[in-house]
User: Fold this.
Amino acid sequence: GPCYCDQACARTLDCCHDYAQTCIVIPCVVSQWSAWSGCAEPCKTTYRVRVRHIIQEPRNGGEACPALEERAGCVEYWTRQGTECQQSLIPALITTGGFGKARKKRAAADGNERAGYCVEFQLVAITPGCLHSHHSYTRWMHYLREGHTVCVECQYPALHALSQHCFGDGTGSQKNQLLHWQAVGNHRCKGTWRRIRQLDTCSCPSVHSFLFI
Assistant:
């Protein structure tokens, strides 16, 4: 008589000859993920990829195969030739502007003081970790507020001798490009900002004033 995909035949031992090939549900089986690739492009905020392949195709209504490719955000700070990327991609390391007075005194004593500059940024995003710092040396982070304009000074020794810039100052960034910063002394305090302008005659106010490290 006719054959049906009825699992009871396995108990009554009267399954059709092609039952195993036609009726048993076989789910998809995939391999383990490969290692992550490098960034798709250097010197850009882009993505990296990992892949897996199908070991067993699904049959007879078995569970479909999952995604075979996965992407994750990625930034590489070096070109394929090994040269450093634009500084706009490098996260700025900042600390309170109050540290600058002591730094300038040391630089003057060493005879290495050079003219610096300031950069104004608008704070776009701040992680909650900035408010959870209770050490005396991290209290300045509590004054960081989204939407505020901050002034960050580039001075020796953070002022790079060859480029005459501080790393992470946004040089070469496009208009309204989101740039990244990280507070020194608390790895959970970081965020993004937009570069407004560079001030060659530096006059950062005492409030919302910071230093590149």
About this structure: Residues 99-110 form the longest helix (12 residues).
